[in-house]
Amino acid sequence: MSVMKSILLVEDDPNDVELIMAGLASNKLANDIIVTRDGEEALDYLNYRGKYAGRTGGNPAVVLLDLKLPKVGGLEVLDHIRSNPKLVRVPVVILTSSGEEKDIIEGYRLGTNGYVVKPLNFHEFVDAVMKTGAFWAIINEPPPRSA
């Protein structure tokens, strides 16, 4: 039996955090959801630094990553994850308002596992998050020893 891993949500907009949490909750996921509000805090969480220095548990089941973040941008966070041998296998899904081709291309070039543009419609937004969360937290089988 595998241990239930957390979901790391990296999002600075409180309204989007609320909508994403609602979408994930509608799946009745048992995963803990860790919310970090900027790229620097996300990197601290992933690397057990700062206020996360004493945290327990391994890597998250998935990182839901916004692109437009304070301090350290989402693409920089993704680049760090993919260049760190301890994090390289962690699934990362970009969940952003940017549908710009250059952002999509760069996200995939850096190794994102998925790219979801946040719908503007409330119900479509919650549905997109619900489906994304269900796939990565329930359906997807991660590679062995991805912790």
Can you describe this structure?
The chain is an alpha/beta fold and 147 residues long. The chain has one domain (7-139): Rossmann fold. It is 39% helix and 14% strand. It has helices spanning 14-25, 39-46, 74-83, 101-109, 122-139; strands spanning 7-10, 33-36, 62-65, 92-96, 114-117. The longest helix has 18 residues, at 122-139. The radius of gyration is 14 Å and the shape is globular. The model has no long low-confidence stretch (mean pLDDT 88).
Q: Please state the oligomeric state of the protein chains shown.
A: single chain
Query: What is the CATH superfamily classification?
Result: Response regulator
For the biggest β-sheet, the strand order reads 2-1-3-4-5
Give the rounded overall mean pLDDT.
Answer: 88
The biggest beta sheet is recorded as: 5 strands, parallel
Unreliable spans are none
Report the CATH topology name.
Answer: Rossmann fold
Query: Which percent range fits the helix content?
Result: 25-40%
- Number of helices in the DSSP assignment: 5
Outline type? globular
Number of domains: 1
In whole angstroms, how far apart are the ends? 15 Å
What order do the helices and strands follow?
Answer: EHEHEHEHEH
Q: What fraction of the residues are assigned to beta strands by DSSP?
A: 5-15%
- Rg (CA only): 14 Å
Number of strands: 5
Q: CATH first level: which class? A: Alpha Beta
Question: Pairing-aware structural class of the strands and helices?
Answer: alpha/beta
Named at the architecture level, the CATH assignment is 3-Layer(aba) Sandwich
